Amino acid sequence: MTAIRTVLGDIAGEDLGVCDSHDHLFFRSASLPGQELDDADAAVAELQAFRALGGRAVVQWTPFGLGRGAERLAQVSRAAGVHIVAATGLHQRAHYCDQALVDEMLPKLAELFIEELTLGMRPDAQPAQPGPRAGMIKVAGAFHHLDAHARATMIAAAEAHHATGASIGIHHELGTAAPDVAALLIGELKVPPDKVILGHLNRQPDPHVHLELAQTGAFLAFDGPSRANHATDWRLHDCLAGLAAHGHADQVLLGGDTTTAAARGAPGMPFLLSSIRPRLGDSLSEKFFVHNPARAFAFALSDVTFALSGITREARLRPPGRCRWGRPCRWWPCGR
């Protein structure tokens, strides 16, 4: 049995609905000072505008340590009436103000990812309660190559995938190094291709590269029409049509990737449905926004339930309803 893990709980894939497959409700980056997404009311308003056009789900790719609002996402989802899938993971070093945090987490990334997928996401502010469970892993490559940081995070992401079945979404800097990522994750680390989401391919609108990537079996994400500094929107529809013509329409995902407050509403999440969807036609729209996300973000519940086999064995010796720290577990009977 498979499910989509949202911040309000697991749902069936068919209940996900029209989905923005890559966006941000909360985000803070050292590379974007003064442009933080940190307003819960604004996040609700953005989701409501998306819902008014038929949107029903948003996947937030903000990873660990970048102000993802883990403890606020459930409330935002309820207020807006929109499903939210949240992410664990680690971005490029340049995005983190606290480099000591990155150094601390790198040696134990796989454990962090598995913890957040199975127990709950660590909150932005301490000592807040853990947030809901993450539903995907987000990592990042470097410009035209994979540096040591990228390789380390991807190795950890692969380990967490093999433990939980969760999908891995990858930020490609200006759309580059996607073939290197596919070779590492799919070829070397044996992550199933349908659990790999290659992001930002719109930023390198090369149809030959897109076809090469499609042949790996991975999902291909075209995400970022909210980015005024990426002047590739005019190539988007030709790229999508080319993939569809070669039989790869079942691998395409679309997202807004709103990362600054200024981008909300200009064009923001609604742009996907108000401007991009009408040009696709009903058949491709249904695939890109409904059927493909329902497969891309699904994983087997049994994989997640028994992810931490050592902890699960220990859990059998504990009283029901107690986590590995001996505290009441709000996710019992998860077996942790």
CATH superfamily grouping: Metal-dependent hydrolases
Q: How are the strands ordered across the major sheet?
A: 6-7-8-9-10-11
The number of helices is 12
Total of domains: 1
Walk me through this protein's architecture.
The chain is an alpha/beta fold. The chain has a single domain (2-305), classed as TIM Barrel (Alpha-Beta Barrel). The chain has twelve helices and twelve strands. It has helices at residues 40-52, 73-80, 99-105, 109-118, 148-164, 178-188, 207-214, 233-245, 270-280, 282-296, 301-305, 309-315, and strands at residues 2-6, 9-11, 19-23, 57-60, 83-85, 87-89, 136-140, 168-171, 196-198, 219-223, 252-255, 298-300. The strands form three sheets. A six-stranded parallel β-sheet has the order 6-7-8-9-10-11. Strands 2-1-12 form a three-stranded antiparallel β-sheet. Strand 1 (2-6) and strand 2 form a beta hairpin. Helix 4 packs parallel to helix 5 (148-164). The two termini are 20 Å apart.
Task: Give the helix/strand layout.
Elements: E1 2-6, E2 9-11, E3 19-23, H1 40-52, E4 57-60, H2 73-80, E5 83-85, E6 87-89, H3 99-105, H4 109-118, E7 136-140, H5 148-164, E8 168-171, H6 178-188, E9 196-198, H7 207-214, E10 219-223, H8 233-245, E11 252-255, H9 270-280, H10 282-296, E12 298-300, H11 301-305, H12 309-315
Parallel strand pairs: 3-4, 4-5, 6-7, 7-8, 8-9, 9-10, 10-11
Antiparallel strand pairs: 1-2, 1-12
Offer a concise description of the structure.
By secondary structure, the protein is an alpha/beta fold.
